[in-house]
Fold this sequence. Notes:
Number of domains of chain A: 1
Oligomer: heterodimer
Largest sheet of chain A: 8 strands, parallel
Shape of chain B: globular
Amino acid sequence: xxxxxxxxxxxxxxxxxxxxIIDCDVHNTMPSDTVLYPYxxxxxxxxxxxxxxxxxxxxxxxxxxPYGARYDAWPPSGxxxxxxxxxxxEQLLDFWNIEYGILNCLTAVCDMxxxxxxxxxxxxxxxxxxxxxxxxEPRLRASMIVAGEDGKLAANEIDRLADHPGFVQVLLLVRTxxxxxxxxxxxxxxxxxxxxxxxxxxxxxxxxxxxxxxGRPSHYIEDHTGMTQAFQTQVTSLVCEGVFEHFPTxxxxxxxGGIAWLPPLMWRLDHAWKKLREEVPYLKRLPSxxxxxxxxxxxxxxxxxxxxxxFQQLLVHLNVDEKLMFATDYPHWDFDAPDRTIPTNxxxxxxxxxxxxxxxxxxxx
Amino acid sequence: xxxxxxxxxxxxxxxxxxNIMAKYVVANINEIPPGERKIxxxxxxxxxIFNINGEFFAxxxxxPHTGGPLCEGHLTxxxxxxxxGEYKYVRKGEILRCPWHGWEFDVxxxxxxxxxxxxxARKYKVSVESSPVCGNENNNEAxxxxxxxxxxxxxxxxxxxxxxxxxxxxP
Lengths: 365, 171
């Protein structure tokens, strides 16, 4: 396995892009949970050694490939994909000449029913990220892991780490226990706004019920495709519960959720609001205006319409050119390659924004 | 898990430099037993050579989807299903799945499963020849008119073993 990357690409030199690249979705992970032991109190170390953590992080159905990873992303060390910093540097950051990568460490925290344990685990993951990733690689920034199902516990962790320059956002998984507009989450938003940290909502999770709106499907292809239902629910909930009226500076990033479904959702919401406004009288503007103001989107997995002009039409409908941010999803199996993802016919100005400049502004890099 | 494969290119042989035809000696046939592959760099391209039941096939190590290292993928079969509940596993060892996104290609033709006419991996002609670079003086002349230096070092110490070599043609 160690040799499988020697001639990985036609060019062994790093791919020199004309445009700078900021990768907004890079997945680091623990080689095993025991690396967290130095960062866990004795109480939670004992708890972990007795009970462990959920086996499949955020996965209701097994992924298409082991750990959901590219087959060539297994490090020479034999560790899990994404758990070996030097290999990640070589295969991702150096190879593609990536200026900054945002780490989104997907953990079992959101699926842990024991919220105190979730908070301790989140804290340990964050301290481990500081020591083993952020302090060793200046091109990396990280998302803060929080026990998002308890707004107060999440807020505590945000307050604890907000001053650390390595953390650029708070990370949630999209399938939550309740729609994210519900008040149980508001303490978390309050803390995020207090520290001017965005909330990132990432693909995956198990949540509290069936993973689709009508029950449990049989296949990963349904799980994967149907994830947009969860994103749609979150967008709708955050708008309709009035979260952005309460927290007018709150910023949300939808990560790995796709983008093409958003324009029709905005049309539908705007249409409904005109008739049902009285139900949500605190909404002062069209739902689409809240969405365009408060949501950012990462590109991967890139929607690939059958004709390139359809993609240009999509961008017109979206009308959020300043809020699209490129992501690879490395090392996962649906990785988007930096040189082949954003259509060249968008022109260099917009491509540059999507590949790096929007993220640079947004994450203050 | 990825299939372990030898990716270390051997140094070029004594340099034939004529650019009449771009044929490259890439391996001794014994190096790539049935079911195995070898990935080499020839003519500024990286090419995977596959042995399927004694026949050799070559594909460029560059997936037509988004440029993943196709030839490092799983060599597998094709699962057919006429109706839900009925399954047939066919063409074992002849289908290559890209290690990035799992696109499936027919190793023999380079055709992709989902769009055989429009999406295909670059395929190269492969032949097996008693190589002129093995030290047989009678064949040296032929070598200089047809062969480019390739990544394989011919064995020159033994005349008693039959020397047969895998040749890839790069247009």
